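Practice problem: DUF1361 domain-containing protein
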Amino acid sequence: MEGLFSLLLLLLLSLLAVFFHLVRILFNSPVDFSLDWNLFLSWIPLIIAFLADNLTKRFGHIPVVLGILSIAWLAFFPNAPYMITDLAHLTVDYQRDLTWHDIIMLFSYAEVSLFNGLVSLYWIHRSWRRVFERKAANTLLLVSLPLAGFGVYLGRVRRMNSWDIIHEPQAIINSVFESLLDRTAWVLSMEIGMLLGILYLVLWGVIRFRIRHSKKNTESGNQ
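Answer key — structure tokens:
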């Protein structure tokens, strides 16, 4: 199935991050599995988008199935950029070796989670483009970016979880309405949305250039 190689590379990056965490534990530090849990959560939208991409490629026009997968993907997508905010836990002491280790460790977790999110965004966007009109697919893409930032706000500031949509839907609704007047919610939503948008544009450009370059080489070889 297409995308398995990408999943393998992201798995290796995840294992590297976990390795840095294991090294941290060897320093007789308290074990905190929240990093590993958050990393696991960043894999959920990636797997959902992987399924959506392969299903739409194999079966074509399946708007209902894709719609359900897209809602599930959007519910968990904020877990990917969420780990950027874990950098706030960093305690800086330039004379302490663990400071530098923690910088590398936290960055590793944030990096692979962000990669998971961007690759999942590419796969789900490609699925939308197969099933829906291009304008609708691009609109869904643009809307999902600030929504991801808003999801990060709900998780970090409001301490909500993705599964609260099912477990505590009323609490989610109340938090959403209360957040409409919160400047932090708007700032975090827009800035994370902009960050994801710029990074995704770079990813899209690199992939499209690679595809076009491969096609030109193939055409030149056939002539």
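Discussion: The chain has one domain: 4-222. Students who identified this feature from the tokens alone can consider the problem solved.
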